[in-house]
């Protein structure tokens, strides 16, 4: 290997923090000895399970070590990092607040709760603790704003859970919105739209749809920090003009993103209008139309059983939609699995049109083996 091909390795003499880790763009190692140094170097090599085992051995671990432990747990698919991380945010780093939010998200899903846990947290209290902490910061970084927006969105979800009650969730949303209005006002209108989209009544209540339409009309789509809510609202309203504006701006902002074509393809499937793919540059548009998911939708719309069969042979009998959506928040460490920048997942499209797929296919193994998604 030539010297030019040798990867640059950055030697870190200071303790590794989550903020340092989040900003690293080259391979790095931590110099020195000890359990934390050894664990840090495992983390830097993406050896997350080994890192967890080592961080757990550190006596009286400080917040910095706990953030790295929690992150390593999350990346090794351990959903109970909140107990390892704890609730004391006094010494939290900016990236550590992202880790805290991810821990809350994982814990909020009751599926992952450990029945034998000795301490059970109230989900709204977890979110409120993080929001209250961010509210005390004199300045908000982009990462802090994203955390606050994510916490707001998570509180909206918990508000629909009657076991937590709506009053506490309303308080959390109010605090988050107050801070954003003062320090990041560009987020206010788009999160207000998110709040309306989170109401189940939007599917059948004309008054709620009018509220969504009004909020969408007030949103400056081209200046909105995230675009997914604008498109999601447009899809609910079948407002093609607004959908095109959101997708066109997405293409402008993320023209070099590897998942741009699949994101626009997902949006077109969700809207049930493949002409939305035309918002992509010509080469990416061709790639998007070649996705089997898009080919299947086109075949359904055209009543073309042969093309439907070709698409299904690629998707498989379980109709596995694999289109990946980009995430707009860019929290530097990882893409959160849940947030206001979530683009539509087109898999439910076949819930509505599964019968049409079956009717297009001739009798035979492919049709008989097809499973309802």
Break the fold down into its secondary structure elements and pairings.
Blueprint: E1 9-12, H1 18-23, E2 27-30, H2 35-44, H3 48-55, H4 63-75, H5 81-85, H6 94-108, H7 123-135, H8 142-159, H9 166-183, H10 188-197, H11 206-218, H12 228-237, H13 240-253, H14 260-271, H15 282-289, H16 292-302, H17 305-315, H18 349-360, H19 365-369
Parallel strand pairs: 1-2
Q: What do you see in this structure?
A:
The chain is mainly alpha-helical and 373 residues long. Helix content is 57%, strand content 2%. It is built from 19 helices and two strands. The N terminus is likely disordered.
Structural class determined from secondary elements: mainly alpha
How many DSSP E strands?
2
Describe the strand arrangement of the main beta sheet, using strand numbers: 1-2
Which segments are poorly predicted (pLDDT under 50) over 5 or more consecutive residues?
1-7
Tell me the helix content: 55-70%
The tally of helices reads 19
Based on CA inertia axes, which overall geometry fits?
globular
How much of the sequence lies in strands comes to under 5%
Order of helices and strands: EHEHHHHHHHHHHHHHHHHHH
Radius of gyration: 23 Å
Write down the overall mean pLDDT: 86
- Sheet with the most strands? 2 strands, parallel
Cα(first) to Cα(last) distance is: 49 Å
């Amino acid at each position: 290997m030539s010297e030019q091909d040798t990867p640059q390795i950055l030697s870190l003499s200071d303790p590794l923090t989550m903020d340092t880790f989040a900003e690293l763009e080259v391979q790095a190692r931590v110099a020195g000895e000890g359990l934390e140094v050894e664990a840090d170097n495992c983390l830097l090599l993406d050896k997350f399970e080994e890192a967890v085992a080592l961080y757990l051995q550190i006596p009286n671990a400080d917040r910095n070590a706990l953030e790295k432990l929690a992150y390593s747990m999350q990346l090794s698919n351990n959903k109970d990092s909140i107990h390892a991380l704890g609730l004391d945010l006094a010494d939290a780093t900016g990236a550590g607040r992202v880790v805290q939010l991810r821990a809350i998200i994982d814990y909020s899903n009751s599926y992952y709760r450990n029945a034998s846990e000795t301490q059970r947290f109230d989900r709204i209290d977890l979110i409120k603790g993080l929001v209250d902490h961010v509210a005390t910061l004199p300045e908000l970084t982009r990462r802090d704003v994203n955390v606050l927006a994510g916490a707001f969105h998570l509180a909206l979800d918990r508000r629909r859970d009657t076991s937590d009650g709506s009053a506490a969730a309303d308080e959390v949303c109010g605090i988050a919105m107050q801070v954003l209005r003062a320090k990041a006002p560009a987020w206010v209108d788009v999160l207000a739209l998110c709040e309306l989209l989170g109401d189940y009544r939007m599917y059948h209540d004309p008054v709620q749809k009018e509220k969504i339409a009004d909020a969408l009309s007030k949103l400056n789509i081209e200046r909105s920090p995230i675009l997914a809510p604008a498109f999601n609202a447009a899809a609910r309203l079948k407002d093609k003009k607004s959908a095109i504006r959101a997708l066109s701006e997405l293409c402008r902002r993320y023209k070099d993103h590897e998942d741009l074509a699949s994101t626009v393809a997902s949006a077109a499937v969700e809207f049930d209008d493949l002409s939305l793919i035309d918002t992509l540059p010509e080469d990416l548009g061709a790639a998007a139309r070649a996705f089997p998911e898009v080919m299947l939708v086109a075949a359904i719309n055209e009543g073309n059983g042969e093309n439907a069969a070709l698409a299904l042979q690629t998707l498989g009998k379980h109709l596995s939609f694999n289109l990946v959506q980009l995430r707009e928040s860019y929290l530097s460490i990882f893409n959160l699995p849940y947030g206001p920048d979530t683009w539509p997942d087109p898999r439910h499209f076949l819930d509505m049109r599964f019968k049409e797929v079956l009717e297009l296919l001739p009798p035979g193994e492919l049709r008989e083996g097809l499973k309802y998604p």
